[in-house]
Structure formats: structure tokens, C-alpha cells
Design brief:
alpha+beta; six-stranded antiparallel sheet; 22% strand; globular
Length: 562
């Protein structure tokens, strides 16, 4: 009860505290918006409210049921079968200084729908897959944002509101909600269903690899075209993306914003090198992180390298716990670091992973380590992902030709799904680098697994995480990381098959421990420790199936994650 009371008190304080964005005070409600406009001698917030309500009106989002009639504090002319809820305005200042208002329904007042209430989003990894496949097949890559997407869908919830002063001449009216207003529990699902119907009608189908990647054969059947959906943000890889956008606007009346060659998408800037290579550059987000740092600490981060010095162990920190403000600062920084890793800066992966476990109760020392990572990004802001589609040449690598027929695995073969779309276009080769760091965590003794995945010449995904078991020797931690890499390699092959991509018969896994590789690749190597049983057989079965080639490489790019 005490914990609950403390949380409620914190929420109440947050709701009533003055908020700022980019140095500007942000109103908490309509009344305060008017007061701020009066104070500053302008109507910027009221103009933003008027713009929002005009947009909502242009979508026929409400049906006017007339002025509300009251008797003894009750509405006498409420529409039968409808529930009364509230709406409220939320405000923000955009990066360019514009004032923004959004009308949101108090959906927490309604009952939980029986069906799903969410609109799915494409994973960032699978978005990179889509972008890579666009480059691989010489497609044209466009981005587009569907304006007021939820208002494109009808709501099935029977609810109404009584309007406030922000509605001007309609103040005091009963408005029945007709469209899926932001804030309603079912609005996400309603928008998902609306977009599903539209894209299906256009000939696209959701991929079994990711239901938010839509796939269709190109008109010349040379490859597939894709649309990756992140709620209302579209990444379109097509031979004619302009025609797709025109159809969305003219046939389905979607109001698209920013439709054109992809430039900025989900926090990442896209550009081309002088040689024409597409680059996903998170520098703009890094700059935003530096602005956040200056706002939090009133100073630029001190340049530093590396992000976490060798031998440093935040788990051993015994400094004083941070106060509430310090904890919020630390959590803000960790959240931004996790996102910048997601969009491409995997060089700070291990440092961020090491600190993330302390989000609930960080110490002052942990905040200083987080500041150091910001200092590293401040010193090296230019890391980016380049989409190189040329296949690597592994013809000079030693062949692993062994007879596994007289082992427990027999004449095993890779299990290939039978419901994949027929492969079209250019082949790809998958390469995986894995590493492990024994005793990364000195408190628990747990090691860290790090994996870096490539499709052809493009780093496409990365992984760094503490192992769930405690290994007492390097051999064990390296075998555990090999098992994880094998799992992920298998999943990559299935994902690409479901996207209609022709993949080579073998994927290549590189490690730096010769004992592990010998134990995994020679048919009659024996299991030395019983608790490695699952890792041992899982990797060996993949090698015996001849879809995974496991080779030695001492200079490991995956060591970035350990």
C-alpha cells in the first residue's frame, strides 16, 4: 500500500508540475494554453488547437447530437446505448518551434474490447531487411506518413462527449464519436484493419515473416515489392512507389505527408555516398541526444573513448543511490542510448547493455558511466550503416566435408518451410560473427554473448546480452554463444524465405575459439561436459545438415558487443 501511495503521489506531482520543451513552457490544459497566449501576447497555442479541431472536423470524426439538456446534474437527451466519456488536449513543441495540439479521448473510461486493441509495427530489423532488399533488387525506396491515420478508420465503440470551451460555438453539445479518435482502446486495431483492407485491395499480402511487411510480385515478376508499416509510417520499396502513393491518395483518400524518396524515417537519416551506396545515418538522432544532455546538465558532454573502458565494472559500483531527478535523468539517457543502438550505433551496445540493468535503482557512478557513453557519441557522431549488396566470396575457405551418416544425426537436412513464396531476384549469403566474454559480470559470474549478422556486405542486426547460465570456462561461454548464433541464423533464413528471397545453401558462422569449432564440426568429437548438451547438439545438428559452416576467425567484429 505504501508503494502504491508513493507512485500515486509521484504521478500527481508530475501532472501538476510545469513542463518545458526546447525551452518553451507547454500548457497542461486548454485554460493554461489561453493563459500562456495572453501572457506572451500571441495566439500560438489557440491557433494550434483550432488547427487540430479543423483537421478532426475535416474527417467527420463526430456527429453533432445537439446541445446537451441537463436536469438535476444529469443529461436528459443522451443518445441511448452510448457511454459518456471525456476528451482532453495534449500539447507539444516541435523541433522547429511549432506549437502542436492533439485532441485525445479518455479511453481508460471505456470497457476493454474483447478483440485485440493494438496496431502492429514492423520491427526495426525487418525494416532494414526491407531497405536492403530494395537495394538488392534495384527498387526505388520512398517514405510516406499517413496524416491523422486513426481518423481514417471508423470506431465501433458507442461513446459520446460533452464539448468544452475549446470547441467554440459547439461548446456544450453532445458529439457522438464516429471515427477512431486517438486515445480510444480500439483505435489502433481499427486503423490496422482499415490499412489491411486497403493494402489487400492493392494486391499486397502480409508476409509470414512479419505481418507488417506487405509483399507483392513486381509487374515484370523479376522480384518482390514491399511496404513496411510502422503504424502510420510507410517505407515503400517498389519499381514505381509514386504510383502506390498516388493510389493511396486518390483512390483511398489518404492524406500523405512527406511522400517521396526516403530521407528521414523513424529517427534515421538516409543518404547516398558518392559511389551511390545507401547509408542509414543516425547522426541527427545523436545530435538530439546531445541537446537532451545539455538540457539535463546545462553543459555539453565531455568527449571520451572508449564508451566503457576495459576493466570497468558498473556492477561493482557502491556509490550513493541517485535521487528522483537523477534517476529520471539516467532513465532518459538509457532510453535514448537503446534507441540509437537500434537504428545503427551498435558500437555502444555492450556499454549500454551493462548499464541498462540498473534503470530501476541507479547509483551516482552509473550516471557518470552513462555520461561517458554520451561523451563517446559526442566525439564520434558519424557512425552509420551502409547497405552493400554485393555477395562475399568464400570460395577460398576450407570446405567442411564430413560424413555424418553414422552419427546420431544421420543424413539430416535443413527443414525448409513449404509455404514460402517462390524465390525471386538476386541471391544472398548470410554471414554471422559471434563472440563471448567470460565473467563479464563479476557479481553473478555471467558471460556475455555478442553476435553480428550480415546479409551480403551489410551489417543487418546485432545482439549483445548476458548469458542465462554461469559458465566456469571460456569453452562453455563460447559454445553457448554459438548455440544462440545458430538459432538466430536459422531464424534469418526462414525470414528471408518468407520474404521471397533466394538464399545460398550455406550460412557462414565465424568464431575465435578453435576448441569449440573442432568440437562442433568433427562428427566423432565427444561431449566433454554434460551441461553443454543442448548447445553441443544444436550447433552440430546445423553443421551436419550442411546449412551452417562454422569456421575460425581470430579478428572478430562481434567483439564490439563484449
Amino acid at each position: 500500500m505504501l508503494i502504491r501511495a508513493a507512485k500515486q503521489s509521484r504521478i500527481k506531482q508530475t501532472r501538476h508540475s510545469i513542463k518545458y520543451q526546447f525551452g518553451f513552457q507547454v500548457p497542461r490544459d486548454y485554460k493554461e494554453a489561453v493563459e500562456l497566449d495572453t501572457k506572451h501576447g500571441n495566439t500560438k497555442w489557440q491557433d494550434a488547437i483550432e488547427m487540430e479541431l479543423l483537421q478532426i472536423s475535416s474527417y467527420d470524426s463526430f456527429k453533432d447530437y445537439g446541445e446537451a439538456q441537463w436536469s438535476n446534474g444529469k443529461i436528459t437527451n443522451a443518445p441511448p446505448g452510448y457511454q459518456k466519456i471525456r476528451v482532453h488536449l495534449i500539447f507539444a513543441v516541435k523541433h522547429d518551434g511549432r506549437n502542436k495540439a492533439r485532441l485525445v479521448a479518455d479511453g481508460h473510461l471505456t470497457k476493454e474490447p474483447v478483440e485485440t486493441i493494438y496496431s502492429g509495427v514492423v520491427s526495426i530489423r525487418n525494416l532494414r531487411f526491407t531497405i536492403f532488399l530494395s537495394e538488392l533488387s534495384n527498387l526505388i525506396l520512398w517514405g510516406a506518413d499517413i496524416g491523422n491515420a486513426y481518423l481514417e478508420a471508423l470506431t465501433e465503440e458507442k461513446i459520446f462527449i460533452i464539448t468544452g470551451p475549446e470547441f467554440k460555438e459547439l461548446e456544450g453539445h453532445i458529439l457522438i464519436m464516429y471515427k477512431a479518435l486517438y486515445g480510444l482502446k480500439s483505435s489502433g486495431a481499427q486503423w490496422h484493419d482499415r490499412l489491411f483492407d486497403v493494402l489487400t485491395d492493392m494486391g499486397f499480402s502480409p508476409s509470414k515473416a512479419d505481418s507488417d511487411i506487405w509483399i507483392k510480385k513486381a509487374s515484370d515478376w523479376s522480384c518482390y515489392e514491399y511496404i513496411a508499416v510502422y503504424v502510420d509510417d510507410l517505407a515503400i520499396a517498389s519499381k514505381d512507389p509514386e504510383a502506390i502513393c498516388q493510389t493511396l491518395k486518390e483512390k483511398y483518400n489518404f492524406k500523405l505527408k512527406g511522400d517521396g524518396p526516403i530521407d528521414f524515417h523513424l529517427g534515421c537519416h538516409y543518404k547516398r555516398d558518392p559511389d551511390g551506396t545507401l547509408v542509414a545515418d543516425p547522426r541527427k538522432y545523436v545530435e538530439k541526444m546531445m541537446e537532451t544532455y545539455e538540457r539535463l546538465f546545462s553543459i555539453k558532454p565531455k568527449k571520451a573513448k572508449p564508451p566503457l573502458p576495459p576493466g570497468d565494472h558498473p556492477e561493482l559500483d557502491d556509490s550513493e543511490l541517485l535521487d528522483e531527478m537523477g534517476t529520471q535523468q539516467f532513465q532518459t539517457m538509457i532510453g535514448q542510448l537503446q534507441w540509437v543502438i537500434t537504428i545503427g550505433r551498435f558500437d555502444v551496445f555492450v556499454a549500454t547493455m551493462t548499464l541498462s540493468r540498473f534503470r530501476a535503482a541507479p547509483c551516482k557512478g552509473h550516471l557518470e558511466w552513462a555520461k561517458r557513453i554520451y561523451g563517446y557519441l559526442h566525439m564520434f557522431p558519424d557512425g552509420a550503416i551502409r547497405f552493400r549488396v554485393g555477395e562475399p566470396d568464400y570460395s577460398s575457405l576450407p570446405e567442411q566435408v564430413h560424413d555424418w551418416s553414422r552419427t546420431v544425426y544421420g543424413n539430416i537436412k535443413e527443414l525448409v518451410p513449404t509455404d514460402c513464396p517462390p524465390p525471386l531476384g538476386n541471391f544472398v549469403t548470410l554471414t554471422h560473427f559471434k563472440d563471448a566474454n567470460i565473467m563479464h559480470d563479476l557479481v553473478t559470474g555471467r558471460s556475455v554473448t555478442a553476435i553480428l549478422h550480415f546479409i551480403n556486405g551489410t551489417p543487418i542486426d546485432w545482439y549483445s546480452k548476458r548469458q542465462s547460465t554461469v559458465e566456469t570456462a571460456t569453452f562453455g561461454s563460447k559454445f553457448v554463444s554459438a548455440r544462440t548464433a545458430t538459432d538466430q541464423a536459422m531464424e534469418f533464413r526462414h525470414t528471408l524465405r518468407y520474404l521471397g528471397v533466394p538464399i545460398r545453401d550455406q550460412s557462414f558462422l565465424f568464431g575465435d575459439n578453435k576448441s569449440v569449432i573442432i568440437n562442433a564440426t568433427l562428427p566423432f568429437s565427444i561431449l566433454s561436459k554434460r551441461h553443454h548438451l543442448l548447445s553441443y547438439h544444436h550447433v552440430r545438428e546445423a553443421v551436419a545438415g550442411r546449412w551452417l559452416v562454422f569456421l575460425i576467425r581470430f579478428r572478430q567484429p562481434a567483439s564490439l558487443g563484449t
